[in-house]
Amino acid sequence: MAIPSRTDSTARAQWWRSIDHVSLTGIGILIGLGYILMLAASPAVAHRIGASRNMFIFKQVAFLSIAAAVVLITSRLSVRSIKRLAVFGGVIALGATFMTLVHGMEIKGARRWIALPLMSVQPSEFLKPFFAVFAAWLLSLRGTILIKNKWRFPGRAVACLVYLVIAALLQAQPDIGMLSVITMVFVTQLFVDGLPMAFFGALVLAMLSAFGVAYLTFNHVRSRVQRFLHPDVGDHYQIDTSLRAFGNGGLLGRGPGEGRVKDLLPDAHADFVFAVAGEEYGFLMCCFIIALFAMLVLCTLRRLIHEKDPFIILASSGLITGFGLQAFINMGSTLHLIPTKGMTLPFISYGGSSAFSVALTMGMVLALTRHRVEPGLFAPQPKESEVPMSNRLFSPTSPHKDPSA
Amino acid sequence: MPDKAPFPHSPEPSARLSPSSSRQASKKQTPSLRKARLWEALRQRFHRPPTPWLERSHQRLVYVGMGFLFIYGAVAFKALFATVLAPMAPLPGQIASQLPEIPKPDPHALIGSGFELPNIKRATITDRNGQPLALSLPIVQVYANPMEIISPEDVYTKLRQVVPNLDHQDIVRRLSQKKQFVYIARNLSPTQELAINNLGIPGIYFETGERRHYPLGRIAAQIMGGVDIDNRGIAGVERYFNQRLTSDHTPLRLSIDARVQAAVRDELDAAKQMFRAIGACAILMDVHTGEILAMVSLPDYDANDFGHAPADARFNRAVTGMYEPGSTFKLQTAAMALELGVAHPWDSFSTAPIHVGRFKISDLKSDHFAPWLPLTSVMAFSSNPASAHIALAVGAERQHTWLKNMGFLNRVPIELPEAGRPIVPSRKNWGYTTVMTVGFGHGVAEPPLAIVRGTAATGNGGFLITPTLLARNHDNDDVVMSDTIGPRVLSEKTSNTLRRILRLVVTKGIGKRAESPGYFVGGKTGTAEKISAHGTYLKNVNITAFTGLFPVNAPRYALYVMLDAPKPTAETHGWTTAGWIAAPTFSKIVTRTAPMLGLFPPDPARAAQIEEQLAIPLIPPIPRGAHAFGPGHEAGILPASVANPRHHTKKHPSHAD
């Protein structure tokens, strides 16, 4: 794809100029790494479950291609379309999550998946980005819609209500990991939204106590935390093998295809793909992957600092927080930094649901963080209908002024 | 919900407050107003104006970014620890194929000298001089993963350079299978392993193991026993010391002297072939320590081929075979009579046949014994009725106790799992007949080792020693009588008398062919008829044995020789009795092994002196005042109720020799 010239005013050229190139490059590199690591990690797993050697590779190539397309298509959406997508997608995901409780297939004691012809889908994966966007919209609406008697639209209350519904669904599955990620994302959004520090502290305390309740209620949560806290008690085969894979890798790694511990690593292609990277390519590759994720998160956040639209700030920060936290939880549990939690490494781990949901997330982030020319000296005043609702509401020249002013 | 936080573009609160305060200042002040103004001033000072939403959210985005920096920094730090600073080493099994084991050759030839080999789990067994009798050698099995093989033909061509006897079709077929594991060759040496490794064929792997070897082959085969495919001892000392051999890697030193063992086997095998015996057995034991220097059982087998050895060859006649001891047991009869004071060397006993029921205890007609023989002559010429009389004089109770104390009624203690239990009547059935037959060595079946042990006790000053296959830590030449370990079973005086009687058997009695000039051997012959499958005694099919000591003047070794069912030759004039068969074999073994054991004939003057000391007359003079047994003063009379006067008697199934 040739770089369009500056005078080119087609939609494609405008998209190219406005997009965050750093993030786009980062996503491209991650997809490439995902392909390379799948070559290393999946044959042993495929052999173990009796599938053909290349099954995971072919499927992942397909998944990653679709995911790249999803990123590109989503990144071209306007802010208004993103809101629509989030609302419709969120409703569907919520309904599907509810369906898992009724029709879901049960894997290892949890009902999180819906079986489809080619793959099984985990609807809660999609719930996460859509809820982040939806909650950001609700929060931003607070400043725009006035009911009467100086009562604003109760954005926070509605968002909290939606959150509670989702939380109830997820703890019924149970999917405590996803619930905690969605919770952390929502709390981050509230934090960025300007929640008073006292409230924020109270929320953190509430999260901690909720985790305590989960620890006491769910057996698998308790066993994982206890295994994390007491290295000598219980079964540590997975995490030990993972750490041995890192140890075998050392600084520079064993070289492509030379990993041996990876063959014995359960879920090497999915949850423990970071350990495969560590064994074959060493600490340097680990650093590179960490740096990629850090770059994606920090560049997006930096871009948001120059952003004025509250919806864009809240939505993007929520999306990128979910993305960053997912990567952190995966890498942290692979390295025994936090208790084991099955969560995929974005774009790198095997899995269709995960790849699509992450692609949607990053596509929406790219779409939201595109440079938008604010109407003013050098830009013609857009038609009322073309200006996104949020921009219309908050621009200094907007007719919808805060009545208290 | 009223939203208290001002939203993005709401006017600043300070701007709203300041005009009102200035308006208040221009008015006339009332106390209430002053109070209100003070309140406002305080509010202004302590209540900072709220930050606009946008500014605050931008600020908080920075905090979020810092949070991410922190957690990713933690991950990077942990990754640094897990890979470089404190890496957790993979388990050996996890990276097995990454670190191929390099074969270790043996440039310093440590294998031959019985040293511990690396990677060998089973300890070496040596003889008393350190000569390896059994040792494990490292071997490798070569296997392949056909999925990794590029060209089976090519692999075969290369492998044939190292392993010439590979079957072409078989190897190609194996390498073409859709498998991940096929054996290619087994039991290769480390040198061959190295050579194959150097060929650099992908997909070829090695499995290390060890294999038991017995360098001396047939020498001491039954003592060594054997191991199974998993290197577990299944017979002999390999089985008895299995735990020791697998836990302690220092060589196990046996009491066997490989040189003596080989010489004894050689002589015995020659005798066995000469007399066409079906089997033979010899035991050479140190009479003071109980160490067995040689223990041969024929036929034998190559210990390296234990699996294919016939049962008859694996059978250790020395400890598992139960044979009626025959006249060799008269030594015990004489010992108990002398020790208990029942009889003296000069006491005479009747040689007339004894009738018991339909049996008759008699000697061979050809013996032409005098009707009365003193004890020394009874031993020298081996009279069955006279021995029966001596046994009767001792009595059932004392005879049984004696045999029990001498260990004849129990399993003989030896470090072999094959050691058998003697076949003896119970005390309840130990009647007059048993007393008489046991008196000349019939009615009980004992393993040869028990006979040697009993012989040693009469020669070592009266101690019952425990036979052992383990080398004692002593210098062979320094053994003295005081080193003898074990309970005293007879007095030194009796031991001295018995030694002289044993010497008499060889010098003047029927054991003349056992004489080994210069080594002062003494011993007792024994011939027992074999029992047929129908339970009757077979004529002319004998077990011939000779048990003896040398040198008798200061006994060091007890030797037992036995030939099973020998055939007569021209030299034996048709005889198959011990004096003609076992005694010469005994002599050959002594004259050949004594020099190896450090014994040398003394000079003639000293020899004559020793003979003088050992001499005991065939008819010892009766000391003055002693009331010796003899005609008119008989000892050991069978009660008339037991003896059957009827005449259709049958000679007891044994004849003296």
Overview of this protein structure:
- The complex is a heterodimer of chains A (405) and B (657).
- With 405 residues, chain A is mostly helical.
- Chain A has one domain (16-370).
- Chain A has 14 helices and 3 strands.
- A 3-stranded antiparallel beta sheet of chain A has the order 1-2-3, covered by helices on one side.
- In chain A, strand 1 (105-107) and strand 2 (110-115) form a beta hairpin.
- The longest helix of chain A is centred in the C-terminal third of the chain and has 33 residues, at 273-305.
- With 657 residues, chain B is an alpha+beta fold.
- Chain B contains 20 helices and 17 strands.
- In chain B, strands 1, 2, 3, 4 and 7 form a 5-stranded mixed beta sheet that branches.
- In chain B, strand 11 and strand 12 form a beta hairpin.
- Mean pLDDT of chain B is 82; it is low at 1-26, 111-116 and 647-656.
Short recap of the structure:
The complex is a heterodimer of chains A (405) and B (657). Chain A is built from 14 helices and three strands.
Map the helices and strands:
The complex is a heterodimer of chains A (405) and B (657).
Chain A: H1 11-18, H2 21-48, H3 55-75, H4 79-103, E1 105-107, E2 110-115, E3 120-121, H5 123-141, H6 155-172, H7 176-192, H8 197-217, H9 219-229, H10 237-249, H11 273-305, H12 310-334, H13 352-368, H14 389-394
Antiparallel strand pairs in A: 1-2, 2-3
Helix pairs in contact in A: 2-3, 2-11, 3-13, 4-5, 4-6, 5-6, 5-7, 5-12, 5-13, 6-7, 7-8, 7-12, 8-9, 10-11, 11-12, 12-13
Chain B: H1 13-26, H2 31-46, H3 53-85, E1 125-126, E2 132-144, H4 152-162, H5 168-176, E3 182-188, H6 190-199, E4 204-213, H7 221-224, E5 226-227, E6 233-235, H8 236-240, H9 242-247, E7 252-253, H10 258-274, E8 279-286, E9 292-298, H11 311-314, H12 330-340, E10 348-350, E11 354-356, E12 359-361, E13 372-374, H13 375-381, H14 384-394, H15 396-405, H16 432-439, H17 448-459, H18 492-507, E14 522-531, E15 537-550, E16 557-564, H19 578-593, H20 604-614, E17 650-651
Parallel strand pairs in B: 1-7, 12-17
Antiparallel strand pairs in B: 1-2, 2-3, 2-4, 5-6, 8-9, 8-16, 10-13, 11-12, 14-15, 15-16
Helix pairs in contact in B: 1-2, 4-5, 10-19, 12-14, 12-18, 13-18, 14-16
